[in-house]
Specification:
The protein has five helices and 13 strands. By secondary structure, the protein is α+β, with helices and mostly antiparallel strands. Strands 1, 2, 3, 6, 11, 12 and 13 form a seven-stranded mixed sheet that branches. The chain folds into two domains: 126 residues, no CATH class; 170 residues, no CATH class. Bound molecules: zinc ion.
Length: 307
């Protein structure tokens, strides 16, 4: 600055005018860079906050849509947006949540140019759509049907009730009791999608079924214990199963074609041998996986951020 001052004081005429003009240009440039950077950063934070808010709110749309707006607002607040800066709304069918945020920001250098502040607006939308592909499914093939909330469904039949030697067990990633047991316990590690035609696991698989289900039920340490009416998301008792149709055959020649996915909360597993069966309560649920509007709506969804 001393050098500049020296020039301004010492030099007359053209040089001073040139320098003065340069200072104005430099100031304008500084205003542009500093304020644009500040606005960019603020806007990016607002976008993140509204995105995370609509994603969190959308998690409520299947089971608890009346709670979706509150959840969205609290996530927005956690991420630095105040109540009066944000607005959220649901669509008519409770399948999407839209969020907007608006903030007036004070500018620094642009004041020199007479611009005191700027208004930043952001918009985001998240929606749910039927699940069409999933990892971690439990190897019970359940016949497709329009299940109702809270309905108790037999996920795996006892040997005495099955037809042609298939009782609901699916062969995923290999055959035999150990593979099947691990799939019941942890969910199948591969991806299953609509249209897949899966080999069935013939036979009752009574022991591996009981072991696997007992493992899941035992790992629910929630208080009160989870049930179809009240459960903690992510509880091991919640099973994502493929729904589908059976292509006729005898025993292992039967095939199970996947037409959708549904979620059940394992309630009861009873008996051994021919009496061994697993019951679950149908729930509406949101999980991770691929969602698509073209999928049939069986009450199990994944969340997508729109655009
Ligand atoms: Zn639980």
């Amino acid at each position: 600055m001393a050098v500049i001052r020296k020039f301004l004081l010492d030099e007359e005429g053209a040089v001073s005018v040139l320098l003065a003009a340069a200072m104005v240009a430099l100031t304008g440039f500084a205003a542009l860079v500093t304020d644009a950077g500040f606005m960019y950063l603020t806007r990016a934070r607002m976008v993140n906050a509204v995105d995370s808010a609509v994603l969190a709110g959308a998690q409520e749309l299947a089971g608890n849509p009346e709670n979706a707006l509150n959840v969205a607002v609290s996530y927005a607040e956690m991420n630095g947006l105040s109540d009066d800066e944000v607005s959220f709304s649901l669509d008519d069918g409770n399948t999407s949540i839209t969020g907007t945020a608006s903030r007036r920001v004070d500018l620094f250098f642009a004041r020199i140019l007479g611009i005191e502040n700027a208004v930043l607006d952001v918009y985001s939308k998240a929606r749910i759509a039927p699940l069409v592909a999933a990892k971690g499914v439990v190897p019970f093939g359940v016949l497709e049907a329009d299940y109702t909330l809270g309905e108790e469904v037999i996920l795996k039949q006892g040997g005495g009730e099955g037809s042609c030697g298939w009782f609901g067990a699916l062969r995923l990633g290999g055959n035999g009791g150990n593979v099947y047991r691990d799939n019941v316990k942890y969910g199948y590690s591969g991806t299953i999608e609509i249209g897949d035609v899966i080999d069935v696991e013939p036979g009752n698989m009574s022991g591996p079924t009981s072991d696997g289900v007992a493992y899941r039920v035992g790992r629910c340490d929630h208080v009160p214990e989870c049930s179809g009416n009240s459960y903690v998301e992510g509880c091991p008792r919640i099973c994502i199963v493929p729904l589908g149709v059976v292509h006729e055959g005898v025993g292992s020649q039967q095939r199970f074609e996947v037409t959708g996915f549904a979620a059940f909360l394992i309630g009861e597993y009873v008996g051994s041998g021919n009496e061994n069966k697993v019951k679950g309560t149908f729930i509406k649920y949101i999980t991770s996986g691929t969602a698509d509007d073209k999928g049939t709506d069986f009450g199990l969804y994944a969340v997508q951020l729109c655009e």
